[in-house]
User: Fold this.
Amino acid sequence: MNGMQLFFRLIQISLLSSMQYRANFIAGILGVLFWNVINLGLIGVLVTKFTHLKDWTVWELVFLYSLWILGHSLYGLFFSHTSELENYLIEGSFDQFLLRPASPLIQLLGGELQYNEIANALIGLTGISLAYAQLDLQWNGWKWGFLFVAVISGSIIELGINLLVACSAFWTGRSRGTSFIVNQFYSLVHQYPIDIFGTAFRVIVTGLIPVAFMNYYPALFLLDKMNRNSPGWWLSYMSPLVALLLIGIVAIVWRLALNRYSSSGS
Amino acid sequence: MKIFWSFTRQAFQFISAYRFNFFMEFILTILRMYGIYWVWRILYTQKPGAFGVSLEQMVTYGVMGMVLELFIWSRPQWYMATQVKSGAIDTDLMKPLDFHVHMLARSTGEALIGIGVLAIPALIVAYLFLDVQFPPDMWVALMFAVSIVLGFLVFFHLNFLLGSLAVVALDIRHINWAYFSLVRFLGGQIVPLWLFPPVVAAIAEVLPFKGTYYIPISIYIGRFSGVDTIRAIGFQIVWLIVLVLTSRMLWGWAHRRLVVQGG
Assistant:
């Protein structure tokens, strides 16, 4: 069985097991839908009062929100359990991964399907469609292609960042605290255009935790908000490259981490 | 009363064992305060007239919403849900203290440590860097103190009600998620009720949620006049009584239906 086959087999098992608890399945989906409605409601309340946030109109904000949630839902659907790595290390159950005749990384990635992310994906698709109609956008094939690439890149970027955070547990034993902080950056970038914040914040979410490449930068291009005279205009195209770069860094860090790993022995 | 405080102390000690988590929680709050600070500033420069209050008041409102969260953050429903799931709830029921009071004691301990370790340092940062105001006078400060204690109790009981449901529903993770967004929204943690569209505002005005964030913070920034302050505190008290009674009833019902798994 090769890596891909194994990955999908693990996913299939997880889906079957979660379908056993049907009430929970439905509650999960409703919970996610509700959470999104409230979030969007807040943006709605703000913008009915103020018509726009800096130079972002309501529907541009909805687009920004939806682009992020779409990339996130892809990540969340397949990989959200990767943050559990810390627990595997502490409990010593990571040892199983090393004993089985398959790549430990594939085994980690293929752990679980977080089905309620489907609700996020629906919200993302609906949001983007509505925004597209309301903003009267006329995209050519390139832009549609770029949207697709941006969403995929977004999910890879989130996976990359979260894997790097999770891997830090190989050195420090704990990664949860760091991941809470990273999540807070996510939620700010998710809901607000980063140009309303100070420079320090923008530098962090561009260079250090490159989460702005999940929605803000591609949205600048997709919504024709790019200003070619400003020094960083090319960042709008960089999401795929950032995603590739992160994959490279994860590969190196993962290798270093495995070399370093010593079991907790429990 | 002595037993109450011993359970409070227990919660206190439990949390102090996780110092690192607390440090992280602190950083998180700073980030949240920073976020809301910029949102209100930008919106204010755009349209100063739309707020009905000054920029300083608005920023103070936003930042206080994040700080208050640290005070009322205790989550008895988590504890109840885990205990029911693992079956360890029977040891709680054997304790020489009414379960409802026991939960309140735990939450009080958590709230006290939340104030001491997180909220006060966060407030100092806010005063120093984010143009947050002090309450206009001593009377307002006093009323604010009364109001946050009531806010804590209202929030505790809402949580306790949800926790009682966990006895029957077993898994409340997802319901809980939706519930928190609801409290944040209708409680006015981020956007105050006076900025809501009229229909939504009318609904939020009568529900207990506004007793958690909106009332204490509005008092703090001096948005309410003397009479309104008293009326708002009265609103919190009335809802608190209703919630206490409902909690007793719902817990009594859930307790009878409780099936302890052979944990």
Observations:
- The two ends of chain B are 31 Å apart (CA to CA).
- The interface with chain A takes residues 20-21, 23-25, 27-28, 31-32, 34-35, 38-39, 42-43, 46-47, 50, 171, 173-178, 181-182, 184-185, 190-191, 195-197, 200 of chain B (CB under 8 Å).
- Residues 206 and 235 of chain B are 9 Å apart (CA to CA).
- Residues 138-169 of chain B form the longest helix (32 residues).
